TrEMBL record, chain A:
<dbReference type="InterPro" id="IPR011045">
    <property type="entry name" value="N2O_reductase_N"/>
</dbReference>
<protein>
    <recommendedName>
        <fullName>PQQ-dependent protein</fullName>
    </recommendedName>
</protein>
<dbReference type="InterPro" id="IPR015943">
    <property type="entry name" value="WD40/YVTN_repeat-like_dom_sf"/>
</dbReference>
<dbReference type="InterPro" id="IPR051200">
    <property type="entry name" value="Host-pathogen_enzymatic-act"/>
</dbReference>
<dbReference type="InterPro" id="IPR011964">
    <property type="entry name" value="YVTN_b-propeller_repeat"/>
</dbReference>
TrEMBL record, chain B:
<protein>
    <recommendedName>
        <fullName>PQQ-dependent protein</fullName>
    </recommendedName>
</protein>
<dbReference type="InterPro" id="IPR011964">
    <property type="entry name" value="YVTN_b-propeller_repeat"/>
</dbReference>
<dbReference type="InterPro" id="IPR011045">
    <property type="entry name" value="N2O_reductase_N"/>
</dbReference>
<dbReference type="InterPro" id="IPR015943">
    <property type="entry name" value="WD40/YVTN_repeat-like_dom_sf"/>
</dbReference>
<dbReference type="InterPro" id="IPR051200">
    <property type="entry name" value="Host-pathogen_enzymatic-act"/>
</dbReference>
<dbReference type="Pfam" id="PF02239">
    <property type="entry name" value="Cytochrom_D1"/>
</dbReference>
């Protein structure tokens, strides 16, 4: 863990970036932002997520219908997981339950994996065009976003859908750390919808840029960052007012976004121009743009 | 020689190839390597060429049907190419995430223009007049583009749509409603919906017989194809096929139906008379697009 000196993490940080069109995962050292290793993964890796214990990186590979599991200590591929349906699209963890959840675009199911063995334990049929997923901070529910069926809420005890919230073209969902609210970007309508997690009531719709894809919440819960894929920008939302406080120009087709542990930097993958924009979150401006592999999409940063 | 045979061409997204199927013997007669991850395939207007949009390499592959070989690979078309249509001497390619359409000169193989359309395009279809392009999106609506201005001239509110095909008469077009598990028939003169017909789960591709009497719809999450009588506007049969049926084509002559099974790496062959699967053909990995001559 980085220590809160107020200026900088004392330990080395690494960013893991899935280069969709290279079938690879790049490891970047922070703050030098140099690529220290590029690891071959499955075809068309569209997401990259670090396990809560920091030991592994998971990519979903929508071209080979697999997950690649990478050890963060050796930066090598240690496992390839099959049987996760047609076009796995995202990964979410419930560490206290020892479970991993993977939604698939075309199969329309969430696959439940054991987080130690990575074995597929169950397939939960959900709906059409699943793209995003988040586990509530108390791990009681799993929220799944889709292009065809709205937001489906799964009871994590029974693995059954208990509610479906109508929402056209919802791409990603992320919770505040205290679990009271969640933020969903509406890909088709260029909005971010804020929901009360207690009763799933819509609190507010926030206009953002065109075709929002990625959403991330700062660990202190004060900011939400949204990548506007067709707006070539990142919207910064203040969670106390749920208003956009800044729109930051970035590269072409910004897609994934990750924050450094103390929320000082945001790293944005620009899928369309093979770069990462690094944002200083104090000034909310891009301080550096670095080259990547082809079509960088998923990104995760160690803590 | 090949232009005289009835052939079906399948873009194998994950195999980065095109399978050529002889529709008389129902055997793969050639596998053509193309650039990385072809997700859609279409003919040139004179049918002398095939074009694939390659989702994993920002490119378009051009295949000569005389030789069944790639004669050109057009690079840096746009990020995430997701469909392809050819009109006159131009090729149009939508990009799913940039929401643009790239215009390629089919003689010089250069990208001559990119114009903005909408969030999340998935299919591009040329109207029979050759004057317009219809772009469907998973995000919101259907967009009608005028050629040669290359501008959106009309937006049809529709919800998420995947496939769009015109009837042979050109009087109507049919779309698959990805979210509501139905198809909608539109009048091509008014661009207004005239009928909705429930089908299976998450319909993707569809094709219409050359008689204009039947439509075949791939229900991706139901492992089935719905056969619709376009006179009575009812589903007359639901045929089990492979896993994640995706693209559909009807051969012009024998009226045989070919369906790609994206997750089974096969093509199901359906006899249009008996409406049953008469053969399942192994193809490359991740077959998606299919066209036939």
């Amino acid at each position: 863990m980085g220590t809160a000196t107020g200026t900088q993490a004392t330990q080395s940080l690494f960013a893991y970036v899935s280069n969709q069109n290279d079938d690879s995962l790049s490891v970047l050292a922070i703050p030098s932002n140099r690529t220290i290793k590029t690891i071959r993964v499955g075809q068309l890796p569209n997401s990259a997520v670090i396990s809560p214990d920091g030991a592994r990186v998971y990519t979903t590979n929508r071209g080979s219908n697999t997950l690649s599991v990478i050890s963060t200590s050796t930066n090598t591929l240690i496992q390839t997981v099959r049987g996760v349906g047609s076009e796995p699209f995202a990964t979410a963890f419930a560490p206290n339950r020892g479970r991993i959840y993977v939604p698939t675009l075309y199969t329309g199911s969430v696959f439940v994996l054991d987080s130690v063995t990575n074995n597929v334990l169950q397939e939960i049929p959900i709906g059409n065009g699943l793209v995003g997923i988040a586990v509530s901070p108390d791990e009681s529910k799993v929220y799944v976003t889709s292009l065809g069926t709205g937001i489906s809420i799964i009871d994590a005890n029974t693995n059954k859908v208990i509610e479906t919230i109508p929402a056209t073209g919802s791409w990603s969902v992320r919770f505040l750390p205290n679990g009271t609210r969640y933020y969903v970007n509406n890909y088709g309508t260029n909005l971010v919808s804020v929901y009360n997690a207690g009763n799933n009531a819509l609190i507010k719709r926030i206009p953002v840029g065109a075709a929002p894809l990625g959403v991330i919440v700062s660990k202190n819960g004060q900011r939400v960052y949204v990548t506007n894929s067709r707006g070539s920008s990142v919207s910064v939302i203040d969670t106390s007012t749920n208003g956009v406080i800044k729109t930051i120009p970035v590269g072409f087709v910004p897609f994934g976004i990750a924050l450094t542990p103390l929320n000082r930097r945001a790293y944005v993958t620009n899928f369309g121009d093979n770069t990462i924009s690094i944002i200083d979150t104090t000034t909310n401006s891009v301080i550096e743009t670095i080259p990547t592999g082809n079509n960088p999409r998923g990104i995760a940063i160690t803590s | 020689m090949d232009r005289k045979r009835s052939l079906a061409y399948v873009s194998n997204q994950n195999g980065s190839s095109v399978s050529v199927i002889d529709t008389v013997t129902n055997k793969v007669v050639k596998t053509i390597p193309v650039n990385k991850n072809p997700n859609a395939i279409n003919f040139s207007p004179d049918k002398s060429r095939l074009y694939t949009s390659n989702v994993g390499s920002r490119s378009v592959s051009v295949i000569s049907r005389k030789t069944n070989t790639v004669i050109q690979t057009i690079q840096n078309v746009l990020p995430e190419p997701f469909g392809i249509a050819a009109v006159s001497n131009k090729v149009y390619v939508p990009g799913q995430y940039s929401g643009e359409v790239a215009v390629i000169n089919a003689r010089s193989f250069h990208v001559i223009e990119r114009f903005q359309v909408a969030n999340g395009p998935v299919t591009i279809t040329a109207a029979p007049s050759g004057q317009q392009l219809y772009v469907t999106t998973l995000a919101q609506d259907i967009f009608i583009i005028n050629i040669p201005q290359n501008k959106v001239v009309q937006t049809l509110p529709s919800g998420p749509i995947w496939g769009l095909v015109f009837t042979p008469s050109g009087k109507s077009f049919i779309v698959t409603n990805f979210d509501t598990n139905q198809i909608t028939i539109y009048s091509a003169s008014t661009n207004k919906p005239i009928a909705q017909i429930p089908v299976g789960l998450a319909p993707l591709g569809l094709a219409i017989s050359s008689s204009g009497l039947r439509a075949y719809v791939a229900n991706s999450r139901s492992r089935s194809v719905s056969v619709i009588d376009l006179v009575s506007k009812r589903v007359i049969k639901t045929i089990p096929v492979g896993t994640i049926p995706y693209g559909v084509t009807v051969t012009p002559n024998k009226q045989t139906v070919y369906v790609t099974n994206y997750d089974s790496n096969t093509v199901s062959v359906i006899d249009a008379q008996s409406l049953s699967v008469i053969k399942t053909i192994p193809v490359g990995a991740g077959p998606r697009g299919i066209v036939s001559s």
